[in-house]
Amino acid sequence: MYFDDFEVGYRFETGSKSLSEDEIIAFARTYDPQPFHVDRDAAAASIYGGLIASGFHTLTIAFELILGADVWNEASMGSPGLDEIRWKKPVRPGDTLRVTGEVTEVQPSQSRPDRGRVIFRYDILNQHDELVAYYYAIQLLKRR
Amino acid sequence: MYFDDFEVGYRFETGSKSLSEDEIIAFARTYDPQPFHVDRDAAAASIYGGLIASGFHTLTIAFELILGADVWNEASMGSPGLDEIRWKKPVRPGDTLRVTGEVTEVQPSQSRPDRGRVIFRYDILNQHDELVAYYYAIQLLKRR
């Protein structure tokens, strides 16, 4: 889908992906080695009561799922940014994540007639349909 | 440092990290396989004129550097969210990134006297001191 194909309220859903404890620890060892992401015992003693995924891990998996849905990929010119990322519930080993996307704004470029911005709200849900995180993404898309 | 040790305007700098082409492609293959992140030829033909790092890769490297600076790690209770992530310039193979952090807000918790929120603005800079990205992070920290 290209810029012109989107309107406010358009929705899509991604596939899903499960996270193992090993994957949570491996990602966090490199990018976010806080004790509650990499150390099972320290995590059990923390306010989280057990290992939880790095919030950055949750975001990157969500983005992997969003690209896998292949909704706007062909028209993508990248993204200038994200807004209001909020982590609402911990993601734990064995959880299965999926994402719903909804268009909240559609802005043709004032200066460049070949492109526009579509703003998506992405809700990241677990296998209990609980919201674990959400964010808004500004997506630069080619026009038809 | 604990919540009580921070005031608005407090600044710190991280170490630096270089990104190879292989690292850029490996990260993007898993999390962000858009052509301009994983395919040298497609990237050359894109608006970016060559391979660029996934914005999520830039963010995770920045966070790795921030944790490496070990400023608030001991007091960390995690983060509820990030605001206004903006990618300003492409990050290319061979670039070296570093981060400057500055406290923009300090908010003791109203309901829980053992903690507070510190908001940091993080600027991600390359080896030419160009701003490649910035964001605001809400950091939950224990009080002394």
Automatic annotation (TrEMBL), chains A, B:
Domain of life assignment: Bacteria
PANTHER family: BETA-METHYLMALYL-COA DEHYDRATASE (PTHR43664:SF1), MONOAMINE OXIDASE-RELATED (PTHR43664)
Gene3D superfamilies with a match to the protein in the record: Hotdog Thioesterase
Taxonomic placement: Bacteria, Pseudomonadati, Pseudomonadota, Alphaproteobacteria, Rhodobacterales
Taxonomic source organism: Rhodalgimonas zhirmunskyi
Protein name: MaoC family dehydratase
InterPro entries to which the protein is assigned, alphabetical: HotDog_dom_sf, MaoC-like_dom, MCH/BMMD
Domain MaoC-like positions: 15-110
